[in-house]
Amino acid sequence: MTIPTETLALLEQQAIELPSWAFGNSGTRFKVFGQAGVPRDPFEKISDAAQVHKYTGLAPSVALHIPWDLVDSYSDLKKHAEDNGVALGTVNSNTFQDDAYMLGSVTHSDPAVRQKAIDHHFECIDVMNETGSRDLKIWLADGTNYPGQDDIRARQDRLADSLAKIYERIGDDQRLVLEYKFFEPAFYHTDVPDWGTSYAHTVALGDRAFVCLDTGHHAPGTNIEFIVAQLLRLGKLGSFDFNSRFYADDDLIVGAADPFQLFRILYEVIRGGGYGVDSGVAFMLDQCHNIEKKIPGQIRSVLNVQEMTARALLVDTDALAKAQSAGDVLGANGILMDAFYTDVRGDLASWRESRGLSAEPMAAYAASGYQEKIEADRVGGTQAGWGA
Ligand code: PSV
Ligand code: MN
Predict the structure, then answer these.
(1) pTM here?
(2) Ligand 1 contacts CB of residue 286 (under 6 A)
(3) What is the spatial distance between Cα 189 and Cα 99, in angstroms, rounded to a whole number?
(4) From the CB of 263, is ligand 1 less than 6 Å away?
(5) Is the pLDDT of residue 387 over 70?
(6) Mind listing the domains of the chain with CATH numbers?
């Protein structure tokens, strides 16, 4: 075994939250490809998410997106999740698909539109109270397309005001997490474009407000692990939306485009105290599987995160600290790279078996017959999709 027992014990603490929307159809603005067996409702999405946990032991909760996951009874959905061995997690608001929000939601100049967006967040908090969710995650599509289109400064003031009203409504055990993104759908300016803006607003809100870092929401070349280190240092890193990007906000499988970046991010998470059950940092996926099958796509994703976490935990931190303080540039870099280049797959497979899981979750799922069953059973109805 390359992985020491203490490290394996730390891996026990890993929990990755799955996005309900990853199980629905998705695509690009050019085409959404329908796939056989895709869920028709939130209950079926939860059943599929539970398969990922069943084969990996890594994904005990599922994030909801409202209104995509609206149901008549959240206690029924919660019970369905529990019966399937998972829990309901973060509730994501959605103010990007209603005609009223074309020029903005919580930043809109019309107080009636702002109130509509605030009321939507109140509705999300009602859902959280029923599901027992801790986090309300807010990503805003608000922004402008042309210089001069609206008053950027006034929009910040309206944003602060609206967020304060939403924050006031969350319970003592709940948190507000504000996600940033530098562009899209707005292309000139975005109202929460970067971690600094999200940080400024969450500091103004209070102790239960945090920043959400979506790995796909940065300009090419951005040093994301630096942002991780800084937010942990400031006590404001609330959650991750993990995914991979080659070009824009591609929402591809985490670790697929740049496993080394994922390793560096996870190294800073561990270094900064963001890893472990009590850290308060939520590790979520925010992905869409446009051409691959959804459940295996999610299995591969959580395994990628586990693999890079194991490698990051292998960094010889004492030796690294010594090399760093001695100014040994290449030695320090070599210590980090040694951990990154360690192949942990065999060890993780044996460890999985020792916990009663399959050594090879991808193969075990493929052999289980679940995929064939949902493809045969789920005929008729309207398939869930990005936006339905
Ligand atoms: C926006 O691009 C985003 O990252 C937000 O988290 C949304 O809620 C999610 O994607 C929708 O897929
Ligand atoms: Mn996201």
Answers:
(1) 0.98
(2) yes
(3) 20
(4) no
(5) no
(6) 13-313 (3.20.20.150)
